[in-house]
Specification:
Elements lengths: L18 H16 L4 H42 L3 E2 L4 E2 L10 H23 L8 H12 L4 H25 L9 E4 L8 H9 L3 E4 L8 H11 L15 H4 L15
Parallel strand pairs: 3-4
Antiparallel strand pairs: 1-2
Length: 263
């Protein structure tokens, strides 16, 4: 570029109107500028704060979308109540759009915490690469003392939410890392729930909660399907209630096991 020219480059999709961006960039910039540290250290802090703000901003945007979808479902439940099928034997479970995106929230939150470690390394003369805040707290306590405001804040955050958030992210990144005390939601046929699986869960400190779900069509759906295609012959299969089909459908033919049927 020629002398006197400058280049405009977009570095973030989040503006200063966002409180996260404003607090971590504009809000901290003047404080960092007044700090009695080198220019190199100031640049590292400002650059790191920008990275943190970008990660948290992305996490917030995805999280707000998930929360909005959950609020819409709750509003619908309050208005219409719980919906059932198959003579109230099945409950319609609401589907939250984008709920799996919580994994992205965890990813960006962990990235932000990894960036915070860079600032801790700067002042603690440490070389941590991962956000293991238990180790970080012990090191800070060694440097500043247990009653120092920084140590107290790190310990409080670690105990209240840091460890929980990082454990969730680690479980997503490394599925074999199952946290002790977790709950297993078991929705398959109860016959598969054998002693070997129960012992595995017990040894891991896991609680098993059986919540039955089914991919089978309901009676209402089967009736609608039958009316839509109007079959010349309807043969019940894979059901314990085949004898009831003539009461619900037309042109039913019940076959015995092994009995041939010519098409």
């Amino acid at each position: 570029m020629a002398k006197g020219q400058f280049k405009v480059q977009k570095i973030s999709d989040i503006g200063a109107s966002n409180p996260i961006m404003a607090g971590l960039t504009i809000g901290l910039h003047d404080i960092v500028a007044m700090a009695q540290i080198s220019k190199k250290e100031k640049d590292i802090i400002n650059s790191t704060n920008l990275n943190i703000a970008q990660s948290l901003g992305k996490a917030e945007r995805i999280g707000q979308k998930i929360c909005t979808n959950i609020e819409l479902i709750l509003a619908d439940l309050n208005k219409s109540g719980v919906q059932t099928q198959s003579f109230e034997r099945c409950v319609n479970v609401p589907s939250t759009e984008g709920l799996d995106d919580i994994r992205e929230v965890l990813k960006y939150c962990k990235h932000a915490l990894q960036e915070v470690v860079k600032i801790i390394n700067l002042f603690g003369n440490t070389e941590y690469s991962n956000p293991n805040y238990k180790k970080i707290y012990n090191k800070l306590k060694e440097i500043y003392g247990a009653n120092h405001p920084v140590c107290l804040q790190v310990k409080e955050d670690h105990d209240e939410w840091l460890k929980k958030l990082l454990d969730l992210r680690d479980c997503d990144e490394h599925p074999s890392m199952i946290p002790e005390g977790a709950t297993v939601i078991y929705s398959m046929w109860g016959g598969y729930l054998n002693d070997r699986f129960r012992d595995f869960c017990a040894n891991k400190g896991l609680t098993i909660e059986q919540v039955h779900t089914s991919g089978h069509a309901t009676v209402e759906d089967l009736e609608a399907f039958s009316k839509a295609i109007s079959p010349k012959t309807l043969i019940p299969i894979h059901t314990f209630e085949g004898k009831q089909y003539p009461e619900m459908f037309e042109n039913v033919r019940i076959l015995k096991d092994g009995e041939p049927f010519e098409v």
